[in-house]
Amino acid sequence: MLAAPSLPNFQRAYGQALEHLITTPQFTNRPRGNHSQESLGLSFTLTDPRARSLFLESRPVNPIYHFAEALWYLGGRDDLAMIGYYARRRRLDSSDGVTIVGSAYGKRLFPAPFDQALALLRSERDSKRAFLPVFWPGALDDPASPDVPCLIGLQLLAREGRLHMVAYMRANDANRGLIADVFSFTFIQEFAARLLGLELGTYTHHVGSMHVAVAELLHLADVAAEAGHSVGQPARFAPESMPAGSGWEQVRQLLVHEEVLRTNQMQYAPADIAALDLSPYWQEIVRLFEVQRQLIHCAADPVDADLLTALTPAHRWQVTRRWAKRMPAEVTA
């Protein structure tokens, strides 16, 4: 039996996935008219699931969306209003303009299945049964559905004091869905480990169909090359750990702050966020949501320089590259 390749961080896995799909794909096809290159049955394991973010000049990512999606899942939500605010393209996933069915994974994971899995692991630490299913028998009933779940399910495995996760994917776009999925699922894994009082273990990602769009191949070749050049180099930023004691109270508070900022009911100065009854780790997410509020509701103005300075160096690096035209002249990464 062959194990999935073990890699130290997601950036390495992402680069290798792109390189493989660009140079040695198994198939070229057009499912639902989407011209893509594809390989079947790809897997990788991350030895440090906290190293879940990309730091590539050629592929600026959206860290605000990543935290928002993880929170959307943890909140057990399926509303388009929240997730569509952070990514307009998610509107294409809704049949009624109000809810998302297929990729609203949190609606099927939380609270009951997740709580049951953790209860099982508390009573039987070596259990193999802590599986959280997402794909359901009726998921293919509507051939015209714009949103069939890509996630089959997540498995939690407590072994020798560490919590491991295995994700089973029906399909993954290596340049879009893969980035967001690994971020959210490893965030959920780390959250579960904190609730169980366990150290963080490995994260394994299995994909039935991994693919990239043919129209993006030239750009993705540059991205893969940059990712390849970073191999063997020191990490640009060290990943941060979710603090001990993190739990549902922090999630509930974060959902409240997220809503008032998303709906522009309030604006937070850096001092306001620093005064919140949250640890710096969770305050940082609120800072990112305030950045998003300014990007959306103050579209004619640059993002506040003091707010950007208050961000961690890693998130400031990502934000200043993703929204370079909205950055004040005095702020540099």
CATH superfamily caption of the largest domain: Thymidylate synthase/dCMP hydroxymethylase domain
CATH architecture of the largest domain: 2-Layer Sandwich
Principal-axis shape equals globular
The main pleated sheet reads as: 7 strands, mixed
Share in helix:
40-55%
- Radius of gyration, taken over Cα atoms and rounded to an integer in Å: 20 Å
Helix/strand order, N-terminal first: EHEEHHHHEEEHEHHHHHH
| Alpha-beta content class | alpha/beta
Counting DSSP H or I runs of 4 or more residues, the number of helices is 12
The multimeric state of the shown protein is: single chain
Strands, total number: 7
Can you identify the CATH class of the largest domain? Alpha Beta
- Looking at the structure, the CATH topology of the largest domain is Thymidylate Synthase, Chain A
- List low-pLDDT spans: none
N- to C-terminal separation? 45 Å
Which whole number gives the mean pLDDT? 97
Pfam families: Thymidylat_synt
Enzyme class: transferase
Protein name: Thymidylate synthase
InterPro entries: Thymidate_synth/dCMP_Mease (IPR045097), Thymidate_synth/dCMP_Mease_dom (IPR023451), Thymidate_synth/dCMP_Mease_sf (IPR036926)
